[in-house]
Amino acid sequence: PKSFIIALGCAGWGPGQLESEIKQNAWLTSPVFEDIIFEIPIETRWEGALKKIGIDPALLLDTAGHA
Prior knowledge:
By secondary structure, the chain is mainly α. It has helices spanning 17-23, 34-38, 45-52. The model has no long low-confidence stretch (mean pLDDT 88).
């Protein structure tokens, strides 16, 4: 491959947990943009990823809800 990242970590979900959290709007999802992973510096990746999908991080709240 032209670019790659090696990462080590652990994450676990119970059966149906991830799907349920996505339905509850607990996750932001987006198409894959290789530049987010390989070109945006780690320090600004979160903000860059949000801006790439049209979200201003300054407008996010720390509470969940539905419109």
